[in-house]
Amino acid sequence: MNHPASIDAVSAYALPRASLATRLAFFIAGFGLACWAPLVPYAKVRLDAGHAELGTVLLCLGLGSIVGMPLAGSMVSRLGSRAVILAGGIGLMLALPLLALTAHMWTLGAALCLFGLSLGAIDVAANVHGTEVQQRVGRPMMSGFHGLYSFGGLVGVSGMTLVLASGFGVLESALVAVGVVLVCLVLALPRFLGHVAAPSAAFFVRPQGIVILLGLLAMATFLVEGAVLDWGAVLLTEIKGMALSSAGAGYAAFALAMTLARLVGDRFVARLGIRRALVIGALVTAAGMGMAAWGHSLALVIAGFAIAGVGAANIVPILFTLAGRQKVMPTSHAMAATSALGYLGVFVGPALVGYVAAWTGLVLAFGVLVLLMGVVALVAGLKVAPPPG
């Protein structure tokens, strides 16, 4: 029989290692996705594709992710987070060179499906593992974990842009990214918590009750993030008069503010509690988006995007914490459902913003996002109960 002291000693040794493994997994997911952004113009030239053709094939990334997330939920139950993150990492390392090389629409679509499937698998497995680590440690950690996703995104897009600007070819730049993913995998794999296999786990569990609600709240929050990514530069140039060369400043401010807020977000959540942190985060996001939509100076608009990033930063980590602690579904399936519903906001949301903007104008389309985050605050205050413990 193990003595309590020996168990505590093992936990004291294992949990910091497991925490590092989780952070590396989140970093891989954010880094891998962001590395694709600078490669898109090169792919468009290779394919000689128009905007509509490219937009259509880019849907394959979302399709792969949406397929990969429920599949990963089942595989985590059966094989554990380590195995799923390893498989997803290998998929990323195969997909990145293909994305840099392929010159045909169908092969690019297949590579994007593999890319999205791999990212979706890593996302679900990292959230499941992060929830387990957080529960064992006994304090909020998910905001910090998601902060590494955001940090990975900043490193990925800036690093890939720098490598390409330094004269490296597209394939060589993709192989540099593969090397970063490989190093992170090698460092992370020995540090994951052990897993007790559940071979009888159901392959698919229909989302229920609170999990659907959490997924819808995540969808709304991701919709705002996708809108800033895809429409923020258009708002700045066409409505606010910013030079085209500086149009990325809005999303840069949003992403940087989100990253910094996530790195300190666990203390914020611990002090305020789950419900209050959700409500305040949604209201701050709404205020920031309102400043961006109706601000009369560029400085005010950019500040609005940054404030929205601060507000949105900790909403999704809290929602994943709640998905990990609910009792109506197995944790891995709940994570998969929350992820899949949430990421629909990223993939479908910008198109919806475009439709609303065509009808009402872009400023009022951003105003709809303000109302949406107000609804998130209201629902979080009335319907979302803090988890036990």
Automatic annotation (TrEMBL):
It is a multi-pass membrane protein. It comes from Isoalcanivorax beigongshangi. The keyword Transmembrane helix applies. It is found in: Membrane. Its main location: membrane. Signal peptide: none annotated. Residues 18-385 form the Major facilitator superfamily (MFS) profile domain. The chain crosses the membrane at residues 20-39, 51-71, 83-100, 106-126, 147-168, 174-198, 210-229, 241-265, 277-294, 300-322, 334-357, 363-385. Keywords: Membrane, Transmembrane, Transmembrane helix. This is MFS transporter. PANTHER family: BYPASS OF STOP CODON PROTEIN 6 (PTHR23514), INNER MEMBRANE PROTEIN YBJJ (PTHR23514:SF13).
